[in-house]
Write a structure and sequence with these properties.
The protein is α/β, with parallel strands linked by helices. Helix content is 27%, strand content 20%. It has 17 helices and 28 strands. The strands form 8 sheets. Strands 10-11-22-23-24-21-27 form a 7-stranded mixed beta sheet, covered by helices on one side. Strands 3-13-6-5-17-28 form a 6-stranded parallel beta sheet. The chain has a 4-stranded mixed beta sheet with strand order 4-16-15-14. β15 and β16 form a beta hairpin. The protein starts with a strand and ends with a helix. This is Glucose-methanol-choline oxidoreductase N-terminal domain-containing protein. Residues 25-50 are annotated as: Disordered.
């Protein structure tokens, strides 16, 4: 196992020393079950093979943004097994440093910390495959959900306001406010996105600077670091543990989760069990793609769909995987007249139209970037592209790469202005393609199928155009005419856009929105409260199984969800502990 150091810039501690409870999944001691398809074990109680098996109070499936704080919290009083399908972020320089942000997303290998997928809409996307989940591969922006959001979902506001700071004190920082981000802030205020709310974690109308999980040295701090708050005597974390399914005892009135089957890094099968003690549970925290996928593979979902794949039905629920949403994003590339320092999201404009405006800078400045593409973060498949999503083929990417070589190097000194639809009404769904958990399921988000989303996008693009033309931007955007003209002239063949022309033409802007839609990776839903889980995130129709992550969200919280996903892990951990300890003490 690699041994990159965990650093606070001054101290250097091998991660294995700081997190001694993290180990390879092949080291798990329980005997392996007999290989069997998902259809055969849903109605049987797995054998322990005659050997002594360790039982856990909680098995948490998915060591991501919610799973890490949840496992750390539960371990204070109970034995917890946390299973993560990927490796550790500490040993991966592409994950650890802001300067390498795009490289993880560009890596489409099986060992990458991100697993890319293409939705049926034709939009390239990614899901995390590493301890820390989305916090290990995202742009790092940290901002809380609004007070109205917390109230609408029925959370305990006092506990919410205790859970956010628990996260913030450990891994969140005030950003180094770069000149480009300062221009974005001043430009947003100039075009009327006011007031200036300064630096704050809170979700407030106007313009603000939010937190970041990158420190002042550009080093990422992920949800995996929240595991340092765990009781190390009570926690086992297995990496490269690919959970195949949740197992059930179906002999009672309701199926009861009793454990999970997982494959280790060598492909060998293992089975882990929860205790029979009251309160022990399997908790799925595998994200908005992984959680509904695992429920389906475990026999919980639409009966007809499951039977088509020969999966025995544990509980027929038509809503698993339904009403998936992704927040559509559209971007404008702004060439600068000089190089600028790299920055990810630091400033956001929160409009009352439900549109959020953000910005990044400093990518594509090297000569190498003009000749290469960088996966789903690159111009070839979205950010500079005017190719409609379903036409973003490998051939189109290759054509773009050839044409890009003729664009002036200076054109790639620049940044992106991004507009995101905060509360999309367009809905999609997730379905299994096969029973291999390592494969991506079929996902469609149906971007802009609801007319309100298209209206919001048009509003956002017009806001971006005003921002580019605002006074604070002039010092950055005064490119010489030859460069600008070359960009515009090549827009058809090279698929580079500076600003959509015809911004007074709503119909043209609607087409621009459809043709340039990309993702900001804030997809959610598929295990909605009231449909798949109850208000305590217990899976309806079965015992001892919960889902706690973004798959339960009706809307994405705040401008960027990672703060709230980590918060809900801590929040629910505390709630579960309090309730169980109360019952045991009574």
């Amino acid at each position: 196992m690699q041994s990159l150091l965990v650093q606070n810039h001054c101290d250097k501690i091998p991660w294995q020393t700081k997190y001694p409870f993290i180990r390879p999944s092949s080291s798990f001691s329980s005997p392996s079950p007999s290989p069997s398809p998902p259809s055969s074990s849903a109605k049987s109680i797995p054998s322990n093979g005659g050997g002594k098996k360790e039982e856990y109070d909680y098995i948490v499936v998915g060591g991501g943004s919610a799973g890490c704080p949840l496992a750390a919290t539960l371990s204070q009083n109970y034995r917890v097994l946390l299973l993560e399908r990927g490796g550790v972020p500490f040993a991966n320089r592409n994950v650890s440093f802001l300067s390498n942000f795009h490289l993880t997303l560009a890596d489409t290998s099986d060992s990458s910390a991100s697993q890319y997928f293409v939705s049926n809409d034709g939009v390239f996307n990614a899901r995390a495959r590493v301890l820390g989940g989305g916090t290990s591969i995202n742009a790092g922006f940290y901002t809380r959900a609004s007070t109205s959001y917390v109230k609408s979902v029925g959370w305990d506001a006092k506990l919410v306001n205790e859970s956010y700071p628990w996260v913030e004190k450990q891994i969140v920082h005030e950003p180094v406010f770069e000149p480009w981000q300062r221009a974005v802030r001043d430009g947003l205020l100039d075009v009327g996105v006011s007031p200036n709310n300064g630096f704050t974690y809170d979700h407030l109308y106007g313009t603000k600077v939010g937190g970041t999980i990158f420190d002042k040295y550009g080093r990422r701090h992920t949800a995996a670091e929240l595991l340092s708050s765990a009781n190390p005597q009570n926690l086992d974390v297995l990496i490269h543990a690919r959970v195949q399914k949740v197992t059930f005892d179906t002999n009672g009135k309701k199926p009861r989760a009793i454990g999970v089957v997982f494959k280790d890094e060598n492909g060998d099968l293992h089975e882990a069990f929860i205790s029979r003690k009251r309160g022990s549970e399997v908790i799925v925290t595998s994200g908005a793609i992984g959680s509904p996928q695992l429920l389906l593979l475990s026999g919980i979902g639409p009966k007809d769909d499951l039977e088509k794949l020969n999966i025995s039905v544990v509980h027929d629920n038509e809503f698993v995987g339904k009403n998936m949403s992704d927040n559509p994003m559209n971007a404008i590339y702004v060439p600068f007249n000089r190089p600028v320092k790299q920055s990810l999201i630091e400033t956001v404009g929160i409009t009352k139209m439900g549109v959020f405006i953000e910005a990044s800078s400093g990518y594509g400045q090297s000569s190498d970037s003009i000749h290469c593409h960088h996966g789903i973060t690159s111009a070839e498949i979205g950010q500079l592209s005017t190719i409609p999503p379903k036409k973003r083929t490998k051939e189109a990417i290759e054509l773009y790469k050839r044409n890009k070589k003729d664009i002036p190097h200076e054109a790639f000194h620049g940044g992106f202005i991004l507009e995101k639809i905060g509360y999309p009404k367009s809905k999609g769904e997730l379905k299994l393609i096969n029973t291999n958990v390592d494969n991506n399921p079929s996902v469609v988000f149906n971007y802009f199928s609801h007319p309100d989303d298209l209206r919001s996008c048009v509003h956002g693009v017009r806001m971006m155009e005003k921002l580019v033309r605002s006074k604070p931007f002039l010092n950055f955007t005064q490119c010489d005419n030859e460069t600008v003209n070359k960009l515009l002239n090549m827009s058809v063949t090279a698929n580079v856009n500076l600003i959509p022309r015809h911004t007074n033409d709503t119909e043209s802007l609607e087409q621009f929105c459809k043709d340039t839609v990309i993702t900001i990776w804030h997809y959610h839903g598929g295990c909605h409260v009231g449909k798949v889980v109850n208000n305590d995130y217990e899976v309806m129709g079965v015992h001892r199984l919960r889902v706690i992550d973004g798959s339960t969200f009706e809307q994405s919280p705040g401008t960027n969800p990672q703060a709230t996903v980590m918060m809900i892990g801590r929040y629910m951990g505390v709630k579960i502990l309090r309730e169980r300890l109360r019952k045991e003490g009574s």
